[in-house]
Design a protein that fits this description.
Elements: H1 3-30, E1 31-34, E2 38-44, E3 66-72, E4 75-78, E5 84-90, E6 92-94, E7 118-124, E8 128-129, E9 136-137, E10 141-149, E11 152-154, E12 161-167, E13 169-171, E14 175-181, H2 194-200, E15 239-240, E16 248-250, E17 257-263, E18 265-271, E19 278-281, E20 287-298, H3 303-309, H4 313-333, H5 338-342, H6 344-362, E21 368-380, H7 388-509, H8 512-523, H9 549-552
Parallel strand pairs: 8-10, 9-10
Antiparallel strand pairs: 1-4, 2-3, 2-5, 6-11, 7-10, 7-12, 13-16, 14-15, 14-17, 18-20, 19-20, 20-21
Helix pairs in contact: 4-6
Length: 573
């Protein structure tokens, strides 16, 4: 083997060995496996120093030393350990929650926040410095970002962003979400009083803060001059939005907006014995204790004003409804005596007045009262002794006397009505007999008239039938005469025609004998003649018609004694 071939073979084997060694090194030292729930962060060991405002290497310029901006997802990668270092981090998972486990409390909040959907709050670790006082920044600035991560799996560079998982907003059915914008232009002034703030936020909407007020608060529903508005009226104002969130899931940045869940519809508040019963004094000085139930509610359009003026539903109950219930009872209860509060009609009127008074108190706070119900009223004197039973006994006795008097009056009226009824029944019997007699007379008249008319109709019918029969007999006679004359005329015409025809035929033949011979010859058929011997001087024949017998007799020979026939001639045809 030549030296060149040996060198060629050696070179080829060296290449194979080198290639195999490279593959072995690549799959042992260079190979990096990233699991299904992991991500790969690559770090450049060599390069230029990063700019002061950067902590990761830009994806479009890999000439810097440090952590690369781009991260890699699950899979297999090959990196040169001399040039690159790497770190494996878990993927960022934003859970979507477990809707099948959702359960809300009466205030519209999830009982178990762990099953709620989440959002990812991003905090940028690099970028430009945000202006002073700005907490939530747009992209490119360092700090909490405006955009949030919705449920899903993300590859987020941990050196560039910090992710904080917070619950998303879930507005349950039967509730709305009131949005309080936490960023924007401030709408508050420190010189406003609480009354000015309340007047400025009462009602379905508020005036733009840029518009001056020209009327006083007492004379107009407009806000007072200089009063702040907690309801947002501008595109960039900070405060409570007038538009609410309907039931659903909302992925909102909690640093930009706060959502207050407000149940809508009607609720009931009951103040009752022994702890929270309503106490007030009646018009005649009795202490009245009663159980008081109020059904109150709010609609979605009221929710922003309720949150702005009062707060949560618990604060509405504690700070508005219950104090209004006590004030309404004290104001309206002082107008009625203890006896009026126990009796049915006046007690019903007291409840109506109580509902109206309560509605007037809470209506400016955007709350509606559906029903106010007083139950279990107890009356006590100045010494604290219960007088309810005594009042009830007195009222019952008075009511019994009233009812007894009403009963006697009713009995008298009943007797008078019974007498009138009996008299009316007698009159009815008399009228019935009179009507029966008149009816019999009218029936007899009607029967006689009917019989008379029936006899007249029968006579007229017999007369008409006789006339018709006479006309029919005359017509029958006329028909018989016409038919007889027509038959005679037809027979005469037929005989005349036959005679004329015979005459014409005889004239055509010249003599009657010739004509008779013609007729005999035309009708003669030997097969149709049967000769029967009957003795001398007798000749019989069987012809088709008897009219030609006379003509056939002409052919009869003179009378002579015929010869004795032979037996074979008998019956010959």
């Amino acid at each position: 083997m030549s030296r060149g071939k040996v060198l060629l073979i050696a070179g080829a084997m060296a290449l194979v060995v080198l290639w195999g060694g490279w593959i072995a090194v690549k799959w042992t030292l260079f190979r990096i496996y990233v699991g299904p729930d992991e991500m790969l962060v690559v770090i450049n060991k060599f390069g230029n120093p990063l700019p002061p405002d950067r902590i990761v290497v830009p994806a479009d310029d890999n000439a810097f030393k440090g952590v690369q901006e781009q991260v890699r997802g699950p899979g297999r990668y090959f990196l040169n350990p001399v040039e690159y270092a790497h770190e494996i981090h878990p993927l960022v998972i934003i859970p979507a929650g477990e809707p099948q486990k959702w359960d809300w409390d009466p205030d519209g909040n999830l009982k178990d926040p762990a099953v709620a959907p989440s959002v990812g709050l991003l905090t940028a670790k690099e970028g430009k410095t945000a202006p002073a006082g700005v907490e939530v920044v747009p992209p490119g600035f360092r700090g909490i970002q405006q955009q949030v991560l919705t449920p899903g799996v993300y590859k987020i560079n941990p050196y560039q962003f910090e992710v904080t998982v917070v619950p998303a907003i879930v507005v349950p059915p039967g509730s709305v979400g009131v949005v309080t914008r936490l960023v924007g232009d401030a709408t508050f002034v420190t010189s406003a009083t609480l009354t000015e703030i309340r007047n400025a936020t009462t009602g379905p909407s508020t005036r733009d803060a840029s518009q001056p007020a020209t009327a006083a608060v007492a004379d107009s529903p407009d806000p007072a001059p200089g009063a702040p508005s907690r309801l947002v009226v501008g595109a960039n104002q900070r405060g409570i939005l007038k538009d609410v969130l309907q039931p659903g899931i909302y992925y909102i940045n909690p640093r930009m907006a706060k959502i207050t869940i407000v149940p809508v519809g009607y609720d009931a508040i009951t103040l009752e014995h022994p702890d929270s019963a309503i106490r007030f004094y009646s018009y005649d000085g009795y202490l009245v204790e009663a159980d008081f139930t109020v059904v109150w509610g709010r609609v979605p359009s009221d929710a922003p004003n309720i949150v702005a003026n009062i707060g949560t539903i618990d604060r509405v109950r504690d700070n508005v409804i219950e104090p209004a219930m006590k004030a309404a009872c004290q104001n309206e209860g002082a107008k009625y005596t203890a006896r009026d509060l126990i009796q049915g009609l006046t007690r019903s009127q007291f409840q109506d007045d109580l509902s109206a008074s309560l509605e007037r108190q809470v209506a400016p706070r955007n709350i509606h009262v559906l029903l106010a119900l007083i139950r279990n009223i107890a009356i006590k004197d100045a010494a604290g002794k219960d007088q309810t039973e005594g009042l009830l006994t007195t009222i019952q006795r008075a009511n019994i006397e009233i009812e007894r008097d009403l009963t006697n009056k009713q009995k008298t009226q009943t007797a008078a009505v019974a007498a009138e009824l009996e008299q009316a029944r007698k009159l009815v019997d008399v009228a019935r007999e009179r009507v029966a007699a008149e009816t019999n007379v009218k029936v007899a008249d009607i029967l006689a008239t009917g019989q008379k008319e029936a006899a007249e109709i029968s006579a007229l019918r017999d007369f008409d039938v006789a006339q018709v029969n006479a006309e029919i007999a005359a017509l029958d006679a006329q028909r018989t005469e016409i038919l007889g004359k027509a038959g005679a005329d037809v027979a005469q015409l037929k005989r005349d025609a036959e005679a004329k025809g015979a005459k014409l035929m005889i004239d055509a033949f010249g003599t009657p004998q010739a004509y008779n011979k013609y007729i005999f010859a035309r009708n003669f058929q030997p097969t149709d003649i049967r000769l029967i011997f009957a003795g001398p001087g007798t000749f019989w024949t069987d012809l088709k018609t008897f009219e030609q017998v006379g003509a056939a007799k002409i052919l009869q020979p003179p009378t002579a004694i015929p010869p004795t026939p032979r037996l074979r001639d008998l019956g010959a045809r």
